[in-house]
Amino acid sequence: EAACISDDSVDHMDVEVMQSQEAAYNRARSNEFLTGPSPSALSSQSQVSDAERVERETQRLWAMVDRETRQVQDQEYLESLKMDRKREEEKQKREEEISDAAAKYVILKSSMKRKRESLPPEPEKGTAARVEVAARLFNGKRVQRAFLASEPVSVLYDWMDSELFHDHDRAAGAATTEEEEEDHGQEFTEADLNYHLVSRMPRRVFDKRDITMKDAGIENQMVLAAERIR
């Protein structure tokens, strides 16, 4: 009898086992809901979370670097544009100054040519009241010419103006190096004609241009010099 178990008993045991398993399953689910995921699940989630955080931080840093790089590049570009604009303005200003100076030089050269051509002819030797004058230019070069004592001192200045200009012009034309061209280039201006004719011994200044050479005391064989007015 003990060895014989009825079908009803087996069915009853199966039901109890199933009920027990279902209860254990429900308890496990309830326990997980209340206490959270298991340590292994937490570890796995933590690793994923750390990786995502590192990735986000890396992306943030790269975005910051990229933004700062663009800002630096933009600033450098603006500075480059500013420098280019400044160089262009300076170049244009130099070109305008050169053009203006060249135009003034052409006008001055034409004026000096007219002065030279308008000088009275030199009186022949032996002519009464003939005054032969020697004069030193700014560079020490000596020039010489004859006039009549009755001619105004202004004629003497016209002669010196043309001599000073043409001496400078000849030196500029003969320049063979850039340094010489800079020294003798188109730099002769009206300011270079601001001078007095003087005698050395005794020192006298002949600045009255509207009187005759005779009245000014300019004598034959007199040596004069062009002296800049400071």
Task: Fill in the keyword field for this structure.
alpha+beta; 5 helices; 230 residues; Ubiquitin-like (UB roll)
Explain the overall architecture.
This protein is α+β, with helices and mostly antiparallel strands and 230 residues long. Among the domains are: 64-118; 120-174 and 192-228, Ubiquitin-like (UB roll) (Roll), CATH 3.10.20. Helix content is 62%, strand content 13%.
Could you outline the blueprint of secondary structure elements for this entry?
Layout (H helix, E strand, L loop, with lengths): L6 H29 L3 H80 L11 E7 L5 E7 L4 H22 L3 H7 L10 E5 L4 E3 L6 H4 L5 E7 L2
CATH superfamily of the domain at 120-174 and 192-228: Phosphatidylinositol 3-kinase Catalytic Subunit, Chain A, domain 1
The separation of the N and C termini measures: 151 Å
Number of strands: 5
Order of helices and strands: HHEEHHEEHE
Shape, please? rod-shaped
Give the CATH class of the domain at 120-174 and 192-228. Answer: Alpha Beta
- Describe the sheet with the most strands: 5 strands, mixed
Task: Record the strand order, biggest sheet.
Answer: 2-1-5-3-4
Biased composition (Low complexity): 37-49
Protein name: Pre-rRNA processing and 40S ribosomal subunit assembly
InterPro entries: Ubiquitin-like_domsf (IPR029071), UBX_dom (IPR001012), UBX_domain-protein (IPR050730)
GO molecular function, one term: ubiquitin binding
Brief characterization of the structure:
With 230 residues, the protein is of the alpha+beta class.
